[in-house]
Sequence to fold (423 residues):
Amino acid sequence: MFTSVSDHARPLGHDLILKSIHSEQDIDRLAAFNAHIHDERLLPMTQGLIRLHPNSRPEYWLFVEEVSTGRIISSLCLIPWHWRYEEVVLHAGEMGIVGTLAEYRHRGLIRALVARFKELLHEGQFDLSMIEGIPYFYRQFGYEYALPLEAQWRLQLHCIPPASEADKSYRFRPATEADIPDLMRLYEESTRDLGIAMVRTAPIWAYLVNHVSHTANLHETWMVEDASGALEGWFATDQMGFGEGLIVAESAQFKIEAAGAVLRELKRMALERGKPDIRLNLPEDHLLLQLARQWHAHDQGTYAWQIHLPDVGRLLTRIAPVLERRIAHSPFAGLTQTFTLNLYREAYNLHWQNGKLRQVESIGFSEEGAVRIPPLLFAPLLLGYRSLDELRHFAPDVSVWGEAKLLVKTLFPQMTSFLYTQY
Ligand SMILES: CC(C)(COP(=O)(O)OP(=O)(O)OC[C@H]1O[C@@H](n2cnc3c(N)ncnc32)[C@H](O)[C@@H]1OP(=O)(O)O)[C@@H](O)C(=O)NCCC(=O)NCCS
Fold:
């Protein structure tokens, strides 16, 4: 696996060097380092991600080493994803497993690793980057909260009505590799209505189904069939993760009768595993969640992915087909205009001609433009996580005048989005 690795090493002074992994031994000592910083689950997860995950590349696993001892001091990695933004596929680079030995913290080692990480984003032409991340820290590196993460809907077991006669016609079994074509179809169907969703290829399904012990949260995939063996859908549970409850990590959009049977099966699993309740980590309008709300599920809040846009001009060009479709279905149909989007540090001229976005031109610093948005706040707008009005409500420097306000609302509507896992 190391034949195509572009070796990278950068001395940092003070007996420290920044490197990427380049041997099997590096994988094991980095996995041990991650387990030491975070928890023991990180050992198999790091090993699995590097050795087995289809999207992983060794040169994307960065660390700082103490030269005289060979000790790993600090580390993070870049994990490539593919997202679907409406009908366009985007290349996203997750910043993952960030940590520094306690005695070396606050010396800028993560800052140095992030600098290399951002070079990799540019070299690999990534459209965006995200991190699950501890609160605040990543704002310093240009990340802003911009997509829902870790929904915490709690359903008490005693609120789930008793089994109905219809429940008897459903069967539940662990998924196998043979189920992957069906899972891919079900996944497409159930995420179709999401504005943004991850693209789950057959190799990613294979990783999730075949390497449960190498997934982040011991992710288990379950198939749901009717009495005749016909497929009704799938759901997945995480054995690990936030909270004490049984975590529902993903699910098909079941028919209502099957949804009730699935929630009762989850109750059975929760009781069997000694879990006090069920936690639904699902998109806001998912049918399973709607039913759970009828059964008094309560919301304990949702965290958010922190997002960085490495090259706004490139990203706008990439999503041009979506922007053009939004314009075509609006009063701006046939738009011919140069429209300046000013992100304060850098402005962009969007050249529209007959409803087509012909060019996105970076014009550097400018004081022009009817649309001014602080650079970090553009990610939540572009990803449909916050509306223009919501942003203006708390950030007076989101400044949009006249007709441009309607145009921005047309180009960047709010969307329901959700990223299921890929490892
Ligand atoms: C969070 C952590 C990775 C930071 O590592 P670090 O090597 O100290 O980071 P850096 O020194 O490069 O930090 C960059 C800047 O943020 C500051 N900083 C460090 N930790 C911070 C924190 N928790 N919150 C806010 N700022 C912090 C640093 O002082 C530095 O500021 P400066 O450049 O103005 O001097 C480290 O504390 C750690 O490993 N924690 C335990 C594991 C963890 O929580 N990882 C993050 C999972 S998402």
